[in-house]
Design a protein that fits this description.
By secondary structure, the chain is an alpha+beta fold. The protein has 22 helices and 15 strands. It has helices at about 35-45, 50-60, 65-105, 110-125, 155, 165-175, 190-200, 235-265, 270-295, 300-310, 325-335, 370-410, 415-425, 445-465, 490-505, 525-545, 560-565, 570-585, 590-600, 605-610, 615-630, 635-655; strands spanning about 130-135, 140-150, 160, 175-180, 205-215, 215-225, 315-320, 340, 345-350, 355-360, 430-440, 470-475, 475-485, 510-515, 550. The longest helix is centred in the N-terminal third of the chain and has 42 residues, at about 65-105.
Length: about 675
């Protein structure tokens, strides 16, 4: 048996319990179902090794419950393994991008930087070959500048005419293109020289991403495999980020070349270089600062502060919605900072997505190098935002999975659930409320509706993270598990949540809440039952014409009895008659009996005094006391209906306690 196989316990000694006949609750005889898989996770075993504990259990004839537990643990362990691998992959991608940005900040050798970009792109995507081609304006064609993993000399020396091959299609459209079978793809122009070179290299699947300077394509970055392969959207975006860094490196190298040429060709070379050296030093300084910020995990406002000091101005990061729209779109399209009045705007973008802008305030005159410094800062800002988004999305998924387990899993381990919640700064032993939220705006089509749901889930996940709760998309809406603060009620929480989510998505959001729940891991159906109650409250709000509002079962009076999952009769009676009952118990009075007789006599004090055999003034005094205890509106139709129902429920739920005449 290989090292990846899990070692099982020794066979039972003679006279011990026979495997297959063990008691279902005798778990200690076999150990925890999670233990072998935790050991596999700890040593980074292959996916195949996770089958061994289950196979071994079957071979030993262990009970079906034990095998089922092992199966569940195996699935969870594989999911954790997959998540860990995904995170390691994303960390490696971001690390490579940051390292490349650092190389660019200290650019000395353009070929070395481009070679590093191609090597890292090939390594992270796991492709057979990666290469970079640049346009040659003088000859009117394209040539191979850097290759990694190539074995065919003819392929490495290819020169392509403008518009030929997959690279020509990328250059013409300025957009990434992917082909999973190069020779069967007729979207681009095939030529004998290109097809021969590709055939010599044995390439099949090819991804090409443009290198852009402004709106001009200066080359193409490729990743290719010698077998059929589908490149995922995240991989295309990653290669696009490397292409942006490559274009920036080429742009910076061109600037250095222009500076050297000016020194050699002009009489005023000394004066020019002195004038520009300060700007270049400032650019190098900001590059070093930005690289340091990236490496130590700084934020977008740290980047803005660093650039402000270098450019001797005020640089601010603004959201895309608050930046000047026309200038922002021009900056994104051109790939450069643009002037807007006395300000400069540099778009912070990832592909076609606008993430915001860096705005240099009150600085109308800007040196070209300072302008490019602002643009580099915008590029680094986009990397930081993407990294923060990736981390936030990973945490949101983990929170959603934990809530799904609380709602669905019946054989979960309370200790493990508490440990998972603690890692997310959530306390499952605190008092919570389960909330069901749904959008009320009408969507034009299915895509718009799906987009609205995603925005609702994102807003709910952010709220859950800030409140140390959990959130998950469910049943066409969103479910949240939020802790209740001392003195807070489920109603208050539901209304605040409805307002918060509605403001975040700019559409009405209706929220139904369960009654407060405790000990969430004590019973398997605690959270599921609370969620069902929250959904009934949500449905009641919509039926009653209160979209965009929030409420709990206690807000519906006696209707709350129909909505509540556990029919909280005692709670309803206490909310409705509690002050009167407590007063009778403390004082030995008969306010409750008087109130019951008053309604039984059609709310007539005269008939009530006959029924109770007391003076009418006594009835009036008792009813006045009831009004002070229950509020002046206690005889309004709605309150009277609830009070009568509470009186009847109280009479049916408690044995009669006859007593002598009471005191008013």
């Amino acid at each position: 048996m290989s090292r990846d196989h899990v070692q099982s316990a020794e066979p039972p000694a003679p006279g011990s319990t026979v495997p297959g006949r063990a008691r279902p609750d005798d778990r200690c005889a076999y150990g925890s179902a999670e233990t072998p898989f935790l050991e596999l996770l700890a040593r980074g075993a292959s996916a195949e090794a996770y089958e061994q504990p289950v196979l071994l259990a079957r071979a030993q004839g262990l009970p079906a419950e034990r095998i089922a537990a092992l199966e569940q643990s195996r699935r969870l362990a594989l999911r954790v393994r997959s998540d860990l691998e995904g995170r390691r992959r994303r960390e490696a991608e971001l690390s490579a991008l940051f390292e490349t940005a650092h190389d660019l900040a200290g650019l000395r050798d353009l070929d070395a930087v481009l070679q590093a970009i191609v090597q890292r792109a090939r390594s992270l995507l796991g492709t057979d070959v990666a290469y970079l081609s640049l346009n040659d304006p003088a000859r009117g064609d394209t040539y191979m500048r850097v290759t990694e993993g190539s074995v065919a000399a003819r392929f490495q020396q290819l020169r392509l005419g403008m518009g030929e091959g997959l690279g020509g299609l990328v250059a013409q459209t300025a957009r990434p293109y992917v082909t999973d079978d190069y020779f069967r793809d007729d979207r681009f122009e095939h030529t004998l020289s290109i097809d021969t070179g590709v055939r010599d290299e044995g390439l099949v699947a090819i991804l090409g991403v443009p290198l852009m300077l402004g709106h001009t394509v200066i080359g193409v970055l490729f990743a290719a495999d010698r077998r059929a392969r589908v490149f995922e959207r995240e991989q295309v975006a990653l290669v696009g980020s490397f292409a942006a860094l490559a274009a920036a490196a080429i742009d910076t190298a061109n600037l250095l070349a222009e500076t050297r040429s000016a020194l050699a060709d002009l009489e005023r070379a000394h004066e020019i270089i002195q004038d520009r050296s300060g700007v270049i030093e400032r650019a190098s300084e900001v590059h070093d600062r930005l690289a340091e910020l990236v490496l130590r995990g700084g934020g977008v406002h740290d980047v803005a502060a660093a650039v402000s000091r270098v450019l001797d101005g005020t640089v601010e990061f603004t959201e895309a919605a608050t930046a000047p729209a026309q200038a922002l779109e021009a900056s994104r399209a051109e790939g450069h900072a643009v002037r807007h009045g006395r300000d400069w705007i540099a778009a912070v973008a990832a592909g076609d997505e606008l993430l915001g802008a860096l705005v240099l305030r009150g600085h109308p005159g800007l040196d070209p190098v300072d302008q490019r410094t602002l643009e580099r800062a915008a590029m680094v800002t986009s990397l930081l935002l993407l990294a923060r988004r990736s981390a936030a999305e990973a945490e949101q998924r983990v929170r959603g999975e934990l809530l799904d387990h609380l709602l669905d899993a019946r054989d979960r381990d309370p200790r493990l659930l508490r440990e998972r919640a603690a890692r997310l700064h959530a306390d499952l032993d605190a008092t919570h409320a389960v909330l069901s939220a749904r959008l009320e705006g009408a969507a034009a089509d299915a895509d718009e509706e799906e987009d609205a749901r995603r925005r609702l889930w994102a807003a709910a996940a952010h709220l859950a993270a800030t409140r140390h709760g959990l959130a998950s998309a469910r049943d066409g809406g969103t479910v949240l598990l939020l802790p209740l603060d001392p003195g807070d009620t489920a109603t208050d929480l539901a209304r605040r949540t409805a307002r918060h989510l509605g403001a975040a998505v700019h559409e009405p959001v209706t929220v139904g809440a369960s009654a407060p729940v405790e000990h969430l891991t004590a019973r398997p159906d605690t959270v599921a039952a609370a969620y069902a109650e929250a959904r009934r409250c949500l449905d009641a709000l919509r039926v009653l014409g209160r979209p965009g509002d929030g409420a709990a079962a206690e807000d519906f009076g006696f209707l709350g009895l129909l909505l509540a999952g556990e029919r909280d009769i005692t709670g309803f009676v206490d909310r409705t008659l509690g002050p009167v009952v407590a007063y009778d118990e403390r004082r030995g009075t008969e306010l409750l009996r008087t109130l019951d007789a008053y309604f039984a006599c059609g709310m007539s004090p005269a008939r009530t005094k006959d029924d109770l055999h007391v003076h009418v003034n006594t009835v009036a005094q008792r009813l006045e006391r009831v009004g002070r205890l229950l509020g002046e509106d206690w005889q309004s139709p709605a309150r009277a209906l609830e009070i009568q129902l509470a009186l009847r429920l109280h009479r049916f739920s408690a044995p009669a306690d006859p007593s002598g005449p009471g005191r008013s």
